Amino acid sequence: MNTEQTLREDLAALYRIFDHLGWGELIFNHITVKLPGDEGHFLINPYGLHYSEVTASNLVKVDIEGNIVEPTEHFVNPAGMLIHSCVHEARHDIICIAHTHTTAGMTVACQEGGLRPDNFYSALLHGRIAYHDFEGITVDQSEKEGLVANLGSEAMMMILRNHGLLAGGRTVAEAFLNMWVLERSCQIQTSVDQTGVQQIQVRPEVLTRTEELTKIQGMGQPTGSLEFAAMKRIIEKKDPSYKN
CA 20 to 30 Å from 109, out of 32, 118, 122, 150? Predict the structure, then answer.
């Protein structure tokens, strides 16, 4: 069972992994993890710190209303609180949520057709992506209802149109893998688009078998567990201070 300390270390590691992969955005964007218990508390990064500065101990604990519930010298990003609080409140199956503004992710988010299921990775996500229309900086409380409605009861990934990417998971590891596959899908789509040549479409019958084929590839392991563990080993060698 995950303890708060374990989740703190895993979340801090995920911030360092995102930084390692070049998914940071100055001091902006956010990843959260919901803590065990009925209080609805979750952890978020201190607003003003770079992802490379996030550690297990400086993560900020907040309640579902966005109130900081433990002493800290830091404060939190209002936009992050709006997005994450409403998703955590509505979707109890989603433990970890990540939001990015990567170049590839924002490029696809700005395209009218969104993510097309025509490359290896985007085919894996066929039928699994939700969309939410742009309403400006996400600090208006009235946007919560639309965010939750558009995400629905099953989707773990959402493209925020004109904005960026959102990925969740039942574990930190699953959220990481969902974001990695979503990001790679966007990278490949934007790269292929730049060639200007006619693209090969994936046959519909292949798309319908995606979930079945993915289960075979996963060999019964918890989703994302092997991939997240591998990236944590890289971060551990690079800078183990995330555990402080």
Answer: 32
